[in-house]
């Protein structure tokens, strides 16, 4: 009886080990299948100016490239602040890109790529949302970076709609230069009313919600007294 009891325990242990192996092997097969089948997705990185949006886009694109994925990054042709061709962050980190006139150009050039990056997406037309969805449904990982609000605190271009359809949204923040809190918006320092105006630290400053409201009130008072800054083009 003692021998049969030992044999029973040995059999149960062997069966347990076999079942554990089967579960582990199945998990490994599922994991490898998941790596080989990368489902499409849309990732949005948004925030105010000087918040590190382009920096984060470049980081994700370089990681994908390091993983031997085929990547391409696009930007609007009007973005020529640091380079006509490269995407360049405020910290001067850069990555080669393809400037395009409109969002449909991206769709025409995305074939054969695993990851597509789009910088300064707020400057693109509203069809960008449809373009990104089409790429994601075709199995492409789409990473979009752009301003979520313009200098007046108004949702900017296709970014709000992209946030709505995105699989993942990352809100990044600059630091308010007045009080050190997390920045909320980009305050324009020059008297230009056009929504689109390329600029840097001489033209914009990141401010928290409270300091931004104070700055807008000051702008209003200056406008009434005729003391607004001179137009940047003058």
Strand order of the largest sheet: 5-2-6-7-1-8
Largest sheet composition: 6 strands, parallel
The helix/strand class is: alpha/beta
On the 0 to 100 scale, the average pLDDT is 80
Termini gap: 103 Å
Ordered list of secondary-structure elements with their pairings:
Layout: H1 2-36, E1 41-47, H2 53-66, E2 71-76, E3 87-88, E4 94-95, E5 98-100, H3 103-109, E6 115-118, H4 128-137, E7 141-147, H5 159-165, E8 168-172, E9 185-188, E10 204-207, H6 209-225
Helix pairs in contact: 3-4, 4-5
Explain this structure.
With 234 residues, the chain is an alpha/beta fold. The protein contains 6 helices and 10 strands. It has helices spanning 2-36, 53-66, 103-109, 128-137, 159-165, 209-225; strands at residues 41-47, 71-76, 87-88, 94-95, 98-100, 115-118, 141-147, 168-172, 185-188, 204-207. A 6-stranded parallel sheet has the order 5-2-6-7-1-8, with helices on both faces. A hairpin with a 5-residue loop joins strand 3 (87-88) and strand 4. The longest helix has 35 residues, at 2-36. It is elongated, with a radius of gyration of 25 Å. Mean pLDDT is 80; it is low at 19-25, 27-36 and 229-234.
